[in-house]
Design brief:
heterodimer; A: 345 residues; alpha/beta; 7-stranded parallel sheet; two-stranded parallel ribbon; 12 helices; 39% helix; B: 310 residues; two-stranded antiparallel sheet; 9 strands; 12% strand; disordered N terminus
C-alpha cells in the first residue's frame, strides 16, 4: 500500500525496530529515518537524516522526498528518560511540526501513524474498569508525560479533522515488556525486590514488544485509520506479575506525607508509575482486534517472555536474542547469489 | 541547532547532535544492541497465557470469595438469621440491576444481599460501591477480590449488558448509611437517577429489594464531620456498637433480624444503547422505584414485632 515511508525517532529503540521491520518488506520503495543522533542499529536500505528533536526541518524533507506515509514513533512515554522540558519539545512541538509538514499545501502525505500510550487515560480511583477509545479520562492530567501525550494527541485529532483526505492512525499502547526493551517497570521487575504500594494490588495489562512493531506494521500496511487501544489479553495483579518474575514486593507507604522519597528514587519509580501501582489501568482492545490484528502474547505471556530473556541475560551475560546482528553475515544472507529462494535469513 | 532547552546538563547533552548514542541521558533506559527484527506472523495456534492467580478482569478472585463466603455464612444465617421473600423474581440468567435501601454505619445490607443471592440462587452479584473505597489501602483490594466493583456507569453497563451479570447498587449512596438512627428507614434521595439510565441503556430490568434490619445492626448515634473531613472520608460515624463494644464495635454488628423482600422487576420498554434518555422519564422512574421501596419497607416494619426476632 504505502511505498515511501518516513519514520521518526530512527535513533530510538522503536524507530530502529520499525525501520528494520519495514526494510524486510519489498513493497516499500523508500524508507527514511529521521532522528536526533546516530541510529543505534545499522540500516540496510533506509536512509537516515539527522534533525533537531522538534523536527523543524521536516517540512523540507517531506517536500523533497514526497513520502506518502509518516510513522511517528518518536513519542516519549516514560518520564524518566528525558528532562521534562525536552519531553514537551519532543512530544508536543515535534508532533506539531510533523503535522504542519504533513498538512502543507500540496503535501504528498496520505497516512500518518502515531505511537501513543494508554498513559493518556491516567490512573485514578474514579476510573472505569475498562477504558474504551472514546472514554474521557476521569482524573485531571497530573504528570508531565501524560500532559505531553494528551496535548500531542489533541494536535493529531485537530489535524485529522482539518485534513479528512489524510488517514490518521493513533495507537495507544499499554505498558510494554519484552526481550530487549528496558523501562522502569522492567528494571524494577528484574531486581530481587520490587516496589508496591502498601494495600494496593492493581490490575495491569502488558504488551509484548514484538506486538508493538506488528501493530504498527499492521496499520501501516493495511492503511487502517482511527484511534485504537493496543494491549495484550488479560489483566493481572501486580503481585502476580512479581511472582511470575520471581521478585519480592516491598510495600511503600501509600500516604503521601509518609512517602519516603529517596526510596522511590532508589526503586526508580517515575510519578506516573506510582499511580499505576495504586489503581492500575484496563483498556478495551476489541476495536483493534476487529481490524484483524492478532497478538502473539497475552499480558501474562509478555511478562513471562520478558523474565525468561532477563534470566538468560543474567546467567549467560549476553543479549538473549534468537539471532544476533552481524553485519557481514546479514549482508551475505541478503545479497549473496548463493542464497536460494526466500528461505529464512 | 538552536533549540531552547532548560539549560540543565542532561538536556544540553540530550540535544547535542554530535553526542554519540552511548552517552546521551536516558541511555540506561535503552538497549544498546537492537537485533534485526523478524516479524513473526500471527500464528493461529493457541498462545500461552501463564497465569498464576485466579484474579479476573474485575479484580475478583474465586479463592478469596470462597474464603469470604465461609467467613460470612455464620453471620448471614446465625447472626442475622436472614429471611428472603420473593427470591424467584430474580432471573436465573441475564443481566439485572438490583437496587436496595442502604443503612447502618458500615452497611451489612450489601454483603447480606450478595451472599444471600449467591447462596440461594447460585448467581454471583457484583456489588457496586463508591470509588472512594478503591483509594483505601487493603480495604479496596479486599473489596475488589471479594467481588466489589466501583460504581461507574461504564462498569455497570459492561456487567449488565456485555456480561449478563447481576449488579447491585444503592442509589442513596453514602446518604443512606450516614444518616442518624433517628432518621431510620427514611429513604434518602436516589442520586440523579443514574441507575435508571444505565438499566435503560443496558436494556435490563431494575429489581428493587427492600431490606429491614440493617438500620439496627449498626445504628449511628452521632457523626464527627470535622474528623471525617480531616481523614478525607465521606462520613465518620460514632455507632452504638462502638459505644457498647469499644473497638470491636467497628466490625461487630448487632444481631438484628434481617428480612429482605424482592419487589417486582421494573422493565422500561425503551430501546437500549441510546446516547440519551428523557431526563424527566428517568427521574420519574427513579422516584417511582424509591416510593415503592419506601412503601415496602414501611409494610415490612408494620409486620415486624421485634427488632431482634423479626
Amino acid at each position: 500500500m504505502s511505498s515511501r515511508v518516513l519514520v521518526t525517532g530512527a535513533d530510538t529503540f522503536w524507530g530502529g525496530r520499525m525501520i528494520q521491520a519495514l526494510e524486510n518488506d519489498p513493497s516499500i520503495d523508500v524508507i527514511l529515518g529521521i532522528g536526533t543522533r546516530a541510529p543505534l542499529v545499522p540500516f540496510e536500505r533506509a536512509e537516515f537524516v539527522r534533525s533537531d528533536q522538534n523536527y523543524s526541518i521536516l517540512n523540507r524533507i517531506v517536500k523533497a522526498t514526497q513520502v506518502d506515509t509518516i510513522l511517528h514513533t518518536f513519542m516519549i512515554t516514560n518520564s524518566g528518560t528525558v528532562p521534562r522540558r525536552a519531553m514537551h519539545e519532543i512530544n508536543v512541538i515535534g508532533t506539531m511540526n510533523l503535522l504542519a509538514a504533513a498538512g502543507a499545501a500540496g503535501s504528498s502525505v496520505r497516512h500518518i501513524v502515531v505511537k501513543s500510550s494508554t498513559l493518556v487515560y491516567g490512573s485514578a480511583a474514579s476510573d472505569p474498569n475498562t477504558f474504551q477509545e472514546d472514554t474521557v479520562r476521569t482524573s485531571a492530567v497530573k504528570h508531565s508525560v501524560e500532559r505531553a501525550l494528551v496535548e500531542a494527541e489533541g494536535l493529531v485529532r485537530d489535524f485529522s479533522e482539518d485534513n479528512p483526505a489524510t488517514k490518521v492512525t493513533v495507537l495507544r499502547f499499554a505498558n510494554v515488556l519484552g526481550t530487549h526493551l528496558t523501562t522502569p517497570i522492567s528494571r524494577n521487575l528484574a531486581r530481587p525486590v520490587c516496589p508496591a504500594m502498601f494495600g494496593f494490588d492493581p490490575l495491569l495489562q502488558f504488551l509484548e514488544e514484538d506486538d508493538v512493531v506488528r501493530a504498527l506494521l499492521h496499520v501501516t500496511r493495511g492503511g487502517i485509520q482511527g484511534l485504537y487501544n493496543v494491549a495484550g489479553d488479560g489483566r493481572l495483579p501486580w503481585s502476580e506479575v512479581a511472582s511470575i518474575c520471581g521478585t519480592r514486593l516491598v510495600p511503600l507507604s501509600p500516604w503521601s506525607p509518609l512517602k519516603i522519597r529517596p526510596l522511590a528514587r532508589l526503586f526508580d519509580l517515575p510519578p506516573e508509575l506510582e499511580d499505576l501501582l495504586r489503581y492500575g489501568r484496563g483498556v478495551d482492545t476489541r476495536r483493534f482486534a476487529s481490524t484483524g490484528f492478532t497478538y502473539t502474547s497475552t499480558s501474562a505471556g509478555a511478562v513471562r517472555k520478558f523474565i525468561r530473556a532477563q534470566r538468560l541475560r543474567r546467567q549467560s551475560g549476553r543479549t538473549p536474542a534468537s539471532y544476533t546482528y552481524e553485519h557481514d553475515v546479514e549482508l551475505f544472507f541478503r545479497h549473496s547469489p548463493s542464497i536460494v529462494g526466500t528461505g529464512e535469513a | 541547532m538552536a533549540v531552547a532547552l532548560g539549560g540543565s546538563r542532561p538536556a544540553a547533552r540530550y540535544d547535542d547532535p554530535m553526542a554519540s548514542g552511548r552517552q546521551v541521558v536516558g541511555e540506561k533506559n535503552r538497549t544498546t544492541a537492537i537485533v534485526p527484527l523478524r516479524v513473526t506472523n500471527a500464528d493461529t495456534e493457541e498462545i500461552e497465557d501463564p497465569r498464576l492467580s485466579d484474579v479476573d478482569e474485575w479484580g475478583r478472585s474465586e479463592r478469596t470469595r470462597a474464603l469470604a463466603r465461609a467467613i460470612y455464612e455464620p453471620l448471614y444465617s446465625r447472626w442475622f438469621r436472614t429471611e428472603w421473600e420473593g427470591l424467584e423474581k430474580i432471573p436465573d440468567a441475564g443481566g439485572a440491576l438490583l437496587v436496595a435501601n442502604h443503612a447502618g454505619a458500615i452497611p451489612s445490607d450489601a454483603p447480606v444481599i450478595m451472599h444471600g443471592i449467591e447462596k440461594e440462587l447460585g448467581r454471583p452479584v457484583y456489588g457496586m460501591a463508591d470509588y472512594f473505597f478503591r483509594s483505601v489501602p487493603v480495604v479496596g483490594t479486599l473489596w475488589a477480590r471479594a467481588g466489589g466493583v466501583s460504581a461507574r456507569p461504564a462498569n455497570a453497563y459492561r456487567l449488565l449488558k456485555e456480561q449478563d451479570q447481576l449488579a447491585l447498587v444503592f442509589p442513596e449512596g453514602t446518604k443512606g448509611p450516614s444518616k442518624s438512627y433517628t432518621d431510620r428507614y427514611q429513604l434518602r434521595r436516589f442520586g440523579r437517577g443514574g441507575f435508571v439510565e444505565i438499566a435503560m441503556r443496558a436494556g435490563v430490568p431494575v429489581i428493587p429489594i427492600a431490606v429491614v434490619g440493617s438500620e439496627e445492626a449498626m445504628p449511628i448515634v452521632f457523626r464527627l464531620p470535622t474528623l471525617a473531613k480531616a481523614l478525607g472520608v465521606p462520613y465518620f460515624p460514632v455507632t452504638a456498637n462502638l459505644l457498647a463494644l469499644g473497638p470491636l464495635g467497628v466490625v461487630m454488628p448487632f444481631p438484628a433480624k434481617f428480612k429482605l423482600r424482592v419487589l417486582d422487576p421494573v422493565h422500561f420498554n425503551v430501546p437500549p444503547d441510546q446516547d440519551r434518555y428523557s431526563k424527566s422519564r428517568i427521574m420519574e422512574e427513579s422516584e417511582r422505584i424509591r416510593t415503592q421501596l419506601q412503601e415496602a419497607v414501611y409494610d415490612m416494619l408494620r409486620d415486624r414485632r421485634s427488632v431482634w426476632f423479626g
